[in-house]
Each structure stands twice: as C-alpha cells, then as structure tokens.
Amino acid sequence: MNKKITVIKGDGIGPEIVTEAIKVLDAVAEKFGHSFEYTDILMGGCSIDACGVPLTDEAVATAKAADAVLLGAIGGNTSTSPWYKLAPNLRPEAGLLKIRKELGLFANLRPANLYDELKFACPLRSDIIEGGFDMMIMRELTGGLYFGARKTEVVDGVETAVDTLSYNEDEIRRIAIKGFDIAMKRRKKVTSVDKANVLDSSRLWRKVVNEVAKDYPEVELEHMLVDNCAMQLVRDPKQFDVILTENMFGDILSDEAAMVSGSLGMLASASLNDTKFGLYEPSHGSAPDIAGQDKANPLATILSASMMLRYSFDMDKEADAIDNAVKQVLAEGYRTGDIMSEGMKQVGCKEMGSLVAERV
Ligand code: NAD
Ligand code: IPM
Ligand code: MN
C-alpha cells in the first residue's frame, strides 16, 4: 500500500524522536512491501521563527491532504523562551490547538500499560503493580477549557483573567460513544471521570454518558470524581480499563498514568475524528531540558507510529511488528536514561530507534 504521511518534527526533542519513528516506519515499509511518502510541515516555535505564526493555513491544507499526520512535539521552555513573550494566539501551543480543531480530532486515545520489563522504572510498590495494568485514557480534545472564550482585563482596578469551560451534549455524546466502542473491544469497563460535585459541565457530562451507556448493556460504567481518580491511579491502577474524560482532566491524568507506566517517554497517543484520518504523537512535550543531546526516549513516538498503522491504515500485523520489536528491545535490556534501572544497558535516542527498526 502507498500512504501519504504529513510529518511535523516540531521543536526541542521533536526532530530527534520523529527521525527514529520514521526509521522504524521505513523498516516496516521494506519488510511488508508498502511505501510511505513523507511531507514535512512546520508547526510550533520553528514555524513562528520561519513564518511568524505557529501554523500556517498552507500547512493545515497539507496535513488535510495526507492519510495521517505524525507529530513529535512543539514548544520551548515556557519561562525563558522568547516565544512566550508573544501574544497567546501566536505561541507554539496555539499551532497544536489549531491543527486539532481544524482536523476535528475530538478523540484522543492514550494507552497506558505496564511492560513487565519496565516494572523497575515504575515508582509504585511492587505489590501494587503485580500482574501489570492496561488502561486506555480517552480524552476529549477539541472542547472544554482549551477552546472556551478567555480574556484578561482590569475589573474594578484589579487585573482579572477568565477562561471558560463549556461543553454541549453533542460534543460529550460523540466522545462517549467512542469510549464505549473501545471498551467493547477491551475489558468492557468505562470509568467516566468528572467533577460533577461542583461543575455544571460535569453534570451534563455525567447525564449524557449515562444516556449513551444504555446502548452498551454489556459495558460496566462507573463515575469517578477527578480528584479521587488522580489518587486511585497510584493506589490501584489495575482497576481501570477505559477512562473517559474531558480535555483538561485527560491532559493531567495522562501524564500521571504515563509515569505510573515507567516514564512520560513511553506514552503514545492517537487523535481521531470520525474518519480513518488521525494525528499521532507522543503524549509528552518537547523536553527542552534534554533537547539535542541524544537522550530522549523515542519509544512513545515509535508506538504512536504503530497506532497510526493500526487505526488509520488497518495494518494490524505491521503494527504488531513494531509493538513486538519494542517489547523485544526492552526484554534484551536496552534502556534510555528515563527508564534506566540497575543492570540494564543505557542507550541514546538514535540507538534505541535503530534497535527497534532492526527487530521489525
Ligand atoms: P515535557 O513533557 O516536555 O517534559 C517533562 C519532563 O519529562 C522533562 O524533564 C523532560 O525531559 C521529560 N521527558 C519528556 N519526554 C521525554 C522523553 N521522550 N524522553 C525522556 N524524557 C522525557 O513537559 P514540559 O517540560 O512541561 O513542557 C515543555 C514544552 O513542551 C512546553 O512548551 C509545553 O507546552 C510543550 N508540550 C508540548 C506537547 C506537544 O507537543 N504535544 C505536549 C506537552 C508539552
Ligand atoms: C498534550 C500537551 C498539550 C495539551 C499542550 C502542549 C497544549 O500538554 O498534548 O498533552 O495540553 O493538550
Ligand atoms: Mn499534556
């Protein structure tokens, strides 16, 4: 098969990790007789520097014309980079929000599981993680606080900032349906996470999720408040199958789930709409503290490329080849610094990518 992939290397470690994911995709293409055609576009700080905006309309058009998008990460150090002196709508993150909105990517899937080989990288006690865990965080991605009206103004002589958290029932219903559909292919349990004891948007969330649940009698549904969920993720991560939640809660809980799995450098993601199209990116950021040092863990990006093969291209055995290659490399004891533990062999970003590509 011939597939067109729009590539966004982005900022910080973005170019390093995407290069390794492409190495692995090329190994898949060679082994299985496919051809992947890559077209680069700019997004984030590099686009600000080259074009004055974090994402041009031409770049969006290129992304739309592809079969899928592969993204590294965007952004700089938010305290020191000059990008953060610009107006908010001209900063790197505005490019990411624009592409998610323009492509209608309302469903963000972030799978967090514990590889047996990485149990020493997990900060939780061994009795808590005995037997491993395997959850899918379903994060709503184009609504909520990220896209509500915001302003900063002086009210009665006091500087005041407002962000708006708004959801309508249609936005909730479509992500809930995706969440239940995915649960049907897994262990048939949905934990819907909200703050319904305080927020109107969460009360609507709960009501709509309950309505959708009626169409899925086989799926067990529970509601959990977000503060409790943050605690339960470290108390007993095994209890979760699908976590269904709104944009901001999903952002925070997925970083927590990533660390419980051993490292932010392991958590892949797929951002989907209602077609086969998708954008695939690691859940972590541009890690300015380690950029350009060949230290980044490329596995989250490589596993995101595997999700691209599975969800957008229906290439299940090709995706399995990547997932198995990652497991094999970990079983052989190779580790980047973030997942290093005693007795293991430490490698850099490039070597990790090559090791996976060779095992595909
Ligand atoms: P971050 O995820 O970039 O880094 C947090 C910590 O995790 C750092 O210590 C970093 O070195 C480490 N880390 C992250 N990914 C790693 C990897 N693959 N291998 C090894 N270590 C890794 O979060 P941050 O520092 O809060 O944000 C930095 C910038 O990234 C900000 O500008 C932020 O807006 C942006 N960001 C972008 C995305 C994205 O592009 N999707 C996601 C999150 C943050
Ligand atoms: C993520 C990131 C983004 C988000 C930022 C960079 C806007 O943290 O993809 O998790 O909050 O969605
Ligand atoms: Mn995040």
Provide a short characterization of the protein structure.
The chain has about 350 residues and is of the alpha/beta class. The chain has helices spanning about 15-30, 45-50, 55-65, 90-100, 125-130, 170-185, 200-215, 225-235, 245-260, 300-310, 315-330, 350-360; strands at about 1-10, 35-40, 70-75, 105-115, 135-140, 150-155, 160-165, 190-195, 220-225, 240-245, 270, 280, 335, 345.
Describe the structure.
The structure is a single chain. The chain is α/β, with parallel strands linked by helices and 360 residues long. It is built from twelve helices and 14 strands. The strands form three sheets. The chain has a ten-stranded mixed β-sheet, sandwiched between helices. The protein has a two-stranded antiparallel ribbon with strand order 6-7. The chain has a two-stranded parallel sheet with strand order 13-14. α7 links the parallel β8 and β9 (220-225). α6 (169-184) crosses α7 (200-213) and α8 packs parallel to α9. The chain is globular, with a radius of gyration of 20 Å. The protein starts with a strand and ends with a helix. The mean pLDDT is 97. Bound molecules: nicotinamide-adenine-dinucleotide (NAD), 3-isopropylmalic acid and manganese (II) ion. The site of 3-isopropylmalic acid has 6 residues, from α4. InterPro entries: IsoCit/isopropylmalate_DH_CS, IsoPropMal-DH-like_dom, Isopropylmalate_DH. Residues 4-356 form the Isopropylmalate dehydrogenase-like domain. Its EC number is 1.1.1.85.
